[in-house]
Write a structure and sequence with these properties.
By secondary structure, the chain is of the alpha/beta class. The chain is built from ten helices and twelve strands. The relative contact order is 0.16.
Length: about 270
């Protein structure tokens, strides 16, 4: 589905991500993790075509990004960012923006089919009940659901998400991740998601790539990447990694500095 070959990108001719090579399989729920400033969001912006590679190549379905028209790219790839529009739009109006890549020449309003797709996606994400509500009046969790509804209204093959659970409580975090996992399975989609929370990444992602100082440190299954030696090396923090007794996935426990001091004294 997605191939990244020796990608280097950044801003103002300064590289933030260097020589990154990753392959994401079709239907995969793929996570990108790493410390603050490691280049995760920069990588996602390159995959979103917000910034251009300085060197290297990106392929979608074996087609190089540069050879894909903007319209075809917008039909195949949807992005859920951390930014939210300030425009005075209702939920319905915002979600319908996802149909713009399908507008024909001289088409200025949505067709019946466009509305059917949008309503189906709002229903799948449980925001149809909010369709007439201004997006500015939504809670953080509701806004994320609306962003996801708009993304799925594009009928994409690949969905890119930048920390979709940021600033949400655990109830909304689990709800968002459960929903994404369900939609990926039912709609046969591929997801690439940047996550800060290592435990969420471990629980929900099929595979992970760990970015450190702009390069790939390790890629593999959660058990291969969420290893205490790997995490301590990259994050420079002492942790304990246990097995979640329910899911059998690796679970990261932090060790406060005060406890380390007590342990050394003991």
């Amino acid at each position: 589905m997605l191939e990244i070959e020796a990608l280097t990108c950044g801003y103002d001719k300064k590289a933030v991500v260097s020589s990154v090579s990753v392959e994401v399989k079709s239907g995969e729920f793929f996570g990108v993790i790493g410390p603050n400033g490691s280049g995760k969001t920069t990588l996602l912006r390159a995959l979103s075509r917000v910034i251009q590679p300085m060197s290297g190549k990106i392929f979608l379905d074996k087609k190089e990004f540069g050879s894909i028209s903007l319209q075809d790219f917008s039909r195949g790839v949807a992005v859920v960012s951390q930014l939210f529009p300030l425009a005075q739009l209702t939920v319905e109006e915002f979600v319908l923006l996802g149909r713009i890549p399908y507008f024909g020449r001289m088409q200025f309003i949505e067709s019946r089919h466009d509305r059917e797709v949008a309503y189906q996606c709002m229903e799948l994400t449980d925001v149809l009940r909010l369709k007439d509500k201004p997006i500015q009046h939504l809670s953080g969790g509701e806004r994320q659901l609306v962003q996801i509804a708009r993304a799925f209204t594009q009928e994409p093959k690949l969905v890119l998400l930048d920390e979709p659970t940021a600033h949400l409580d655990i109830t909304h975090q689990v709800a968002i991740m459960d929903l994404l996992k369900k939609l990926v399975r039912e709609l046969n989609l591929t997801v690439v998601m940047v996550l800060h929370d290592l435990n969420l990444a471990s629980e929900y992602c099929d595979r992970l790539t760990l970015i450190s100082q702009g390069t790939v440190y390790k890629t593999g299954t959660p058990w291969e990447v969420i290893d205490y030696r790997v995490i301590e090396k990259v994050y420079q923090t002492v942790v304990v990694v246990n097995q979640n007794p329910i899911s059998a996935k690796p679970h990261v426990l932090i060790v406060p500095g005060e406890e380390l001091i007590k342990n050394k004294r003991g």
